[in-house]
Amino acid sequence: MKVLPTGQGEAGSWSGQSISGPGGPSPDKNLFQNMLSAVQKQQNQADVEVRRALLGEGELHDAILALEKANLGLRLLVQVRNRLVAAYEELSRMQM
Amino acid sequence: MNIFKSMEISASGLTAQRQRLNVIAENLANAHTTRTPQGGPYLRKTVILETQPVEEFASLLENSAKVAVSEVVESSEGLVQEYNPTHPDANEQGIVTWPNVNPVAEMVSLVMASRTFDANVAAFRAGKSMALKALEIGR
Prior knowledge:
- The complex is a heterodimer of chains A (about 100) and B (about 140).
- Chain A has helices at about 15-20, 25-55, 60-90.
- Chain A has a domain at about 25-90.
- Chain A is built from 3 helices and no strands.
- Chain B has about 140 residues and is α+β, with helices and mostly antiparallel strands.
- Chain B contains 2 helices and 4 strands, in the order H-E-E-E-E-H.
- In chain B, the strands form 2 sheets. In chain B, strands 1-2 form a two-stranded antiparallel ribbon. Chain B has a two-stranded antiparallel ribbon with strand order 3-4.
- Chain B starts with a helix and ends with a helix.
- The model of chain B has no long low-confidence stretch (mean pLDDT about 90).
- Chains A and B meet through helix 3 of A and helix 1 and helix 2 of B.
- Chain B: It comes from Desulfobacca acetoxidans.
């Protein structure tokens, strides 16, 4: 339930470096990392809501809704990552 | 993000209906309560709902509104008087005042709260499935 920050995450299989390619840092990497931190924020929020619901402080549906938001955000992030990888593979196949 | 706006609105509806349910449960539980800290029988409570802008400084053009509980009001109308001198809370004339809670009306409100909750869940689900379908466009 926790996305490790990029750069120091050994478990983060899709860290920013693996995507930006050999051309050095690109604006895409920045965008991707912004999305990554936004998704992580949503997941932390979901964690907080679930904890509150389990402790009886918050409402149950708020926890489920926060989880759904995190789920949707992660799905969107995965789609963006798929597009980035597809674009990179397309470029790497290009004949020079 | 904009896709979460409908979810926020549905969430506010869910919260409001939960609070309504709390008040209805309180009414039903206290349908025969004759003693309160304020003295006298329990008074029926009703939830008043109000709209609330989704964003803090929402523009007037885009006035989508959430729902929130404005206040919980007590009503002292229709208190039931019954002659029962053996009751400890009877007055000098032997009249006991019972709460003005009508269990049938409360059950109707309960069903309405429950159905409105379901409707909000359905709206949330529709928004979620639309978002998931949007992600599948490029597939």
